[in-house]
Amino acid sequence: MAAKSANTGNPPPRRARGLHALANPARFMRLARAIFPFAAVIAAGTLIAGVVLGLAVAPADYQQGDAYRIIFVHVPAASLAMIIYVVMALAGAAALIWKHPLADLIGRASAPVGAAFTFINLLTGSLWGQPMWGTWWVWDARLTSMLILFFVYLGYIALQSAFEDPTKGARAAAILALVGLVNLPIIHFSVNWWNTLHQPATIMKLDRPSIDPSMMAPLFLMLIGFLAYYVLMLTIRVRSDIIARRIRNLRLMQSAG
After folding, report:
1. What average pLDDT does the structure give for the chain?
2. How far is CA 209 from the centre of its chain?
3. What count of Cα atoms within 13 Å lies in the side-chain half-sphere of residue 94?
4. Phi and psi (nearest 5°) for 61?
5. CB 227 within 8 Å of CB 81
6. pLDDT tens digits, one per residue of 54-82
7. What are phi and psi of 65, to 5 degrees?
């Protein structure tokens, strides 16, 4: 009696099944519809509250006067630039390792938002640096590493559309995102590793933050608002890409038929 053939259709491991279940486009569309109104309300409410507290309630700095208030945009923009890049790198890893169906879409949707926050950080840093340092730009370690991050974002966006085969472009962009992770520790620790013009950390430190609570409140509100805005843009852009792919597939089916 012949032995039974080996079963080559074994189901994937439970972890992989869970990842792909979360990546189901229809399930993502339902989740996005549920998240969208909450993200919109949180973004609008926290940004308005942060601006009001930052401009009208927080006191002037004893050294910088009112010029320091740009911190309420500058610092949250820097945080979002790095957070979004981590999301892109994780999406790239998921696309390369597990072939996650929506990972490329998440990376593609995140890149322009992250690049915009990086640009805002560089712009506000220059506006803040001119009255404080007497110059619009210096090749400071923190500024230079943030500029590199901005160029990596632009490179990622360019690679996504640099190939006729979208799969090759997505793969190249995912590899770039993973390689670019090495720049994030440099950005964060540059003020400790080198003698830079930037002041040391005042919030993310081992002991208590060295910033007045009246200034910290609008800072965190703006951070939450920027984060909610990113979630809002992510859901909009990924939903648009899913719909565009569905329309493209329908047209291909109609032309083939």
Report:
1. 85
2. 25
3. 21
4. -75, 145
5. no
6. 999 888 887 788 888 999 999 999 999 99
7. 65, -140
Within 23-140, residue ranges assigned H as helices are 25-52, 71-98, 103-133
Q: What one-character DSSP code corresponds to residue 67?
A: G
Question: By residue range, what is the domain housing residue 246?
Answer: 36-250
So what's the pLDDT on residue 84? Answer: 97
Tokens coding 149: 């991050």
Residue 177 lies in a domain: yes
CA distances from 66 to 57, 130, 133 (A): 12, 14, 15
**Is 16 part of a structural domain of the chain?**
no
Task: Calculate Rg over the CA atoms of the chain.
Answer: 22
Q: Is residue 127 part of a domain?
A: yes
Contact yes or no for 91/174 (Cβ under 8 A): yes
Closest CA to 114 of 27, 162, 164, 184: 184
Q: Is residue 67 part of a domain?
A: yes
**Residues above pLDDT 70, as percent of the chain:** 84
**How many distinct structural domains can be found in the chain?**
1
How far, CA to CA in Å, does 13 sit from each of 16, 24, 30, 115, 162? 5, 17, 25, 36, 35
Six token digits for residue 64 = 């910088």
SS3 call for 4: coil
Residue 161, SS3 per DSSP: coil
pTM for the complete prediction?
0.85
Cβ distance 107 to 174 under 8 Å?
yes
Q: Cβ atoms within 10 A of the Cβ of 183, count? A: 17
Nearest to 109 by CA among 48, 50, 160: 160
- Please tell me what DSSP assigns to residue 257: -
Collect all residues with Cβ–Cβ distance below 8 Å to 86 and sequence separation of at least 6. 181, 184
From 196, 231, 205, 201, select the one nearest 78 (Cα to Cα). Answer: 201
